[in-house]
Model the fold of this input.
Amino acid sequence: MLLVFLILLVGSVISQCIATKDQTTCSHPAKGNPKFPSNFTFGVATAAYQIEGAWNIDGKGPSIWDDFTHNYPHMIDDRTTGDIAADSYHRFNQDLKALKELKVTHYRFSISWSRIYPTGDISSRNQKGIDYYNGVIDKLLANGIQPMVTMFHFDLPFELQKIGGLANPLIINYFVTYATELFENYGDRVKSWVTLNEPLLYCKSGYGEANYPPQIEGAGIIDYLCMDHSLKAHAAVYRVYKSRFYNRQHGKVGIALDSQFSLSNDSAVVNRAMQYNLGFFAHPLFSKSGGYPKILVEEIAENSLKEGRIESRLPDLSGKWKHIIKGAADFVGINYYTSRYVVRAKTPNGKNPSLERDYDLDEISDPKWTRGLSRWLYCVPEGMESILKFIRDEYDNVEVIITENGYSDKGDLNDLDRIHYLKSHLQAVLNAINDGCNVRGYIYWSLIDNFEWQRGYSVKFGLYSVNMSSPAKERTPKKSAEYYRRIIETHSIPDDI
Ligand code: BGC
Done:
């Protein structure tokens, strides 16, 4: 009798745990067709500094991240660097094996500018660096995998920082020259280009809050300048591609924007939040009117005047540049990880001045949302569906590729939470497609565990684990790799995990 009672008791405790677990894992209800369109593409992403290592090999020059990790080690949680990382520079074949196992159609990787031009300038052209990426591209294509190439993923050549980096308008010309080199060398085979990765984030962190290199404390001023130059550099590259390369290369050029959806019952608050985030870059590129969102232009000008300035801290985007930028992308890349509730700020946020102060909203998370290991990462798949609908309605249903989406943990191979994240977010993408959103592809971040910027190697996003303590840096698939492969093979989202 006692035994039966104990069995019942243990059984009920276990089922309660499962119930609790189910309530807290992230999920999203299915709506409509359970299959992705047959031409929908699936990929995975990485970035040069996070995986390549070989920081000073074969003529590569230092980037601002080399300088940052070497000279400000206390800025990285575990005081590590990307000097060796997953050593993909020497071990690309191991990455290729993983890509083939996953059966992805696309691999999004970034090129290290200072491998191609060690000082950032054409005068330092480095053939060995150019050859390295030729090898990567050829091997991908030989295995039926399309390369999607990011030109700039945070790692600016250090020499260019000496002249102010992205705060100097000369960066536009340097970037166009570098991009032209990439089109000339790789454009015969690369048909999908991403100019810049997450300009809002690298400008805010590097030129505003000073917690990323180049650590400039210029909140609300220099970060806006960095965004302005980034936007112009992107558009100038797009125009060069269209006028000089498109006719023979027939590729697409886009930009990857960091995004989150802002949830609120008040549509004016949602709109305000979206314009201050996604809209910073998306409005000048994809809206009917072009230029920065009206609300930003008016409010930042007004705030600037109140501060006693003679002109707005947000550079003027009128005339020639407004025209060059409008329509200057074939697709928008969306890096979506999380969302927040937003309400009007109760008290002023951030420093004066700053983007936070101009933004004037409080962001709130829901205690019910499950959380990744990254402090900011809550699982909010409904935000993914909503942002895609926002883009559909606001930007004339421009072509969208989810260029990043991923979940962080400590690196367990039995990564059920990552599977739930993947499942629910792909469901949100599928629902959006069923609702008329023009989403053409999904790219998971990341193929392998890698150097997670300020978090070093303490936080993992990979579908494959990397044995960092072994010289051979072996890659091992996690449970999520198998699940993602099933999604790709069936073009649907398996219920059983
Ligand atoms: C970046 C990646 C990064 C990921 C997770 C994105 O902001 O593009 O480089 O690893 O998010 O933090």
In short: The CA atoms of residues 198 and 257 lie 5 Å apart. The first strand starts at residue 41 and ends at 45.
